[in-house]
Amino acid sequence: MTAAPDGAYALRYASRTVSTRGEHFYGHPDGCLDDWPIDYFTWVVLDADRTVVVDTGFTPQTALERGDRPYAATPPQLLERLGRTAGDVTDVVLTHLHYDHTGHLDAYPGARIWLQRRELDFWSSPLASRPGFAHLRHDADLARLAGLVEAGRVELLDGDARLSDRIGLHLVGGHTPGMQVVRAATDDGLVVLASDASHFYANYENDHPYGVVYHLEDMHLAFDRLRELAGTDGVVVPGHDPRVAERFPPVPGGEALVLHLTPRHLAVNHEGAVHAQQR
Ligand SMILES: [Zn+2]
User: Fold this and answer.
1) Ligand 1 centre distance from Cα of residue 43 (Å)
2) How much is the pLDDT for 47?
3) Could you confirm whether domain 7-277 is CATH 3.40.50.970?
4) Ligand 1 centroid from CA 231, angstroms
5) 33, 73, 88, 210: which has the fewest C-beta neighbours closer than 10 Å?
6) Residues 4, 218: Cα–Cα separation, whole Å
7) Which of 247, 263, 261 is nearest to 5 (CA)?
């Protein structure tokens, strides 16, 4: 297909069929046994001469192992619907190292990997084998990542950094020790990719922490940081919310699996959504 315009995109590669509200909100929320659908995304920023992939998803094999995770297409396959291939990817940002963000690391042979050092240190430490953490990591992915570090392909960050003139990486912590979010200044406006700093709109909009917490105070501060990074005109895109597909349009031929994250579209066409984002 023809190349998509520069901008930010969400790739909705999988979902989960068995999921309750109680899993996703801290404490013991009302209606904790209610169904609470969850989607799995990776993101892409096309920026002048760069193709930046934000997180790498889990593989079909991991979906089978964990169960109840219908799989649409791999993130590298969905990337092709934007007119790019995995070989075109110049940069991969890993927001954090949970299993649903670290698969397919070997699919992008030319990419530089961007990761916070404290995130790598934590998941390489004995603490990451304790029951509260072990089920969230994927050992083969982490071994692959260690190989990439060894090969000198990983940029280990100590705090906020710039990936390019228009793309910033911001350390927030909270969900994991080195959780980072991405802010992209696109032609369509400011897009803040929250990843799991806010799984759902309901987390940061209602100041309600997610159920998996590394540091509760930092999780609240991350919500503040997301709002600050988006400013008055930008949008925050949560990491797992099926509502992202209601608020943003699919690219042509994308079957709602490839979504164009354009604040301008919201301003023009989605008055309800804009209202929902007012802060
Ligand atoms: Zn996640």
Assistant:
1) 12
2) 87
3) no
4) 24
5) 33
6) 36
7) 261
Which residues crowd ion ligand 1, with CB under 5 Å? 100, 196
Three-state SS string over 86-109 comes to: HHHCCEEECCCCCHHHCCCHHHCC
Element (H, E) at 64: helix 60-66
Beta-strand runs (E) in the chain: 7-16, 38-47, 50-54, 91-93, 112-116, 154-157, 161-164, 167-171, 180-186, 189-195, 235-238, 258-260
Spacing of C-alpha 242 from chain mean position: 13
Find the Cα–Cα–Cα–Cα dihedral 162, 163, 167, 173, rounded to 10°. Answer: -70
pLDDT, residue 277, reads 41
- DSSP 3-state assignment of 19? coil
pLDDT for res 263: 85
The two tokens of residue 270 are 């989605």
**Mean pLDDT per 10-residue section of the chain, whose length is 279 residues:** 86 95 92 96 94 98 95 97 96 98 97 98 97 96 98 98 97 98 96 98 97 97 98 96 96 87 70 41
Q: What pLDDT, on the 0 to 100 scale, is given for residue 274?
A: 44
